[in-house]
Amino acid sequence: MKLKISDIESWDGDTDRIIHWFRKIDDLASLSPRMRLQLGRMVPKRLTGSASDWYWSLPFDHRRRIEAEWATLREEIAGYYMTKKWWERLRKRASDAKFRETGHTKETPSEYFIRKADLLTTAYNFNDSEMISEIMQGAPSQWNMILTTHLYQSVVDLQRAMRFHEESLIDCLPQR
User: Are 75 and 81 in contact, with CB atoms under 8 Å apart?
Assistant: First the structure.
């Protein structure tokens, strides 16, 4: 497969989106060894805003070394943007995330699951049982009357149950 520049999602340096962006590029890189090499050279051309400013401020020889393949470029980007402070903030955000918190007041239970699971997966290395527990920590207590979490074998079981019971999960909440 010949990679076109338009196949690569752009990224502007927004660290709230870096993991999502990495996952998309990693998916392309998984297609073949040739793809990994192409991405090393092409991804820098898809950086915009502050990410572009940072990248093109690097010395020419250094850029050439890290453009050898996607893995070396990814490592450089992560090293610059994903600092210790960034990880601490991410872990706090993941642990503190609640259903329909500020900025997410209209989310559905399924949307909450995806948002919380994405944060937790990025921030921690939880097994399914721990993930289910953490996701339910941010959910309204009324959901425990509907979701039988002790019976779920995997986090996918919880996700399916939240989707299946979506209307009931919303209806059981106190009206505002």
Answer: no
